[in-house]
Give the backbone structure.
Amino acid sequence: MPESDADFALAGLEHEGFALRGRFSSGVEGTEWCERRLLARIHRYTLDRLRKEIEPVNAADFLRFLFKWQRLATGSRAEGPEGLAAVLDVLDGYELAAGAWESEVLPARLTDYDPLWLDGLCLSGEIAWGRLTATRNGEGGTRNRKVGPVKSTPIALFRRERGEIWRAGNPEVDSTTLPLSSTGKALLGAFETRGALFFGDLVNATGLLRTEVEKGLAELVAWGLVSSDSFAGLRALLVPSDRRRPLGGGYRRRGRIAPFGVETAGRWARTRGKPPVAEEQVAEAVAWQLLRRYGVVFRRLVQRETLLAPWRDILRVYRRLEARGEVRGGRFVGGFSGEQYALPEAIGLLRSTRREQGAEELIAVSGADPLNLVGILTPDEAVPAITTNRILYRDGVPIVVKEGEGKSERFLVDVPAEERDILRGALLRRRPAPLVRTYLGKSKAAG
């Protein structure tokens, strides 16, 4: 048969949907043709073969993998501003207690963490901060809430270009329905008419006292309505009043004074409302972020995530990505039902982690840390996501839990009496950076 006749006939079969053209065999150049149903069978067999290549790991090995993936394990901690940017890419969009970011979560993943690195990333426009989820009525104990942000207020750090996507996945907050104070309403009016403003411009625009403007900003931050260019703005609002630097200078107070204030935070601006982003786009962005955060994703693992599209939409994205060969599906972690998907680079690390023998490594995390997975990946009772709670893991197994200040530790496994003091010492939090200690308040820390 002449080649031109064959090409014409094949094009006709392609138009009818019977045949597909492409490159299907390795080492073969040029266009190949295949019957559509046969190609689907070949593709399904290929996916089944790839899935069988992975032997599931247990929960302890998976936690050891997560400690490496998220930079908590020995030898995997990041360094410098570039390392901080990489860590924040993993934690992008995760909401946790405002006071836990610089006291617990970031220092656990970075060597000699310096808060000025975070300020630099924020001021350069790479990273933004703010509350993403809607505030519930009555949160904080009263319906007419007029207090500022507290250390337990959920705050997320995220790349600025992803902010619209994350806000699109949460219900929009109508500021007219919130019980705002007159100061808060005046500040919102200034933002809506004049846009982003420095602290001094806010004072001039509203005609309010500087202390009143500070309280109003604190209120709006707590409701998730405003943010600032620098993370120093949030730090200043978390500092106890007796350790704040006097606005506009003034006298020197005795004791430790915070070296930052609301006026050093750059511009303050109203957070944007819910942008018009398609649900499919939100689901795909969330699906990729979960893979960046955990390497391997399944439904039970993301139980504490606030940044979630409907799980059925996320699964639809993962199935499409697996069909393209961009992610791998299979049974990666044993003991958990449902579909599981992983990044190709995560599978190699998961395999090597399983082959390594446990080195009795002790890793302590805060209850607010994303890797507080007690009760989620383990059969133990869940530990509330509170900053002062502490969990100590040994080779991926939680062994000691301490809930709240002043309470005794709870041992989850049998531990000889002579080892208990060593484990209690490992459970203590690291001594934070001097700049962070100014707004931590009284707390026990390792020296």
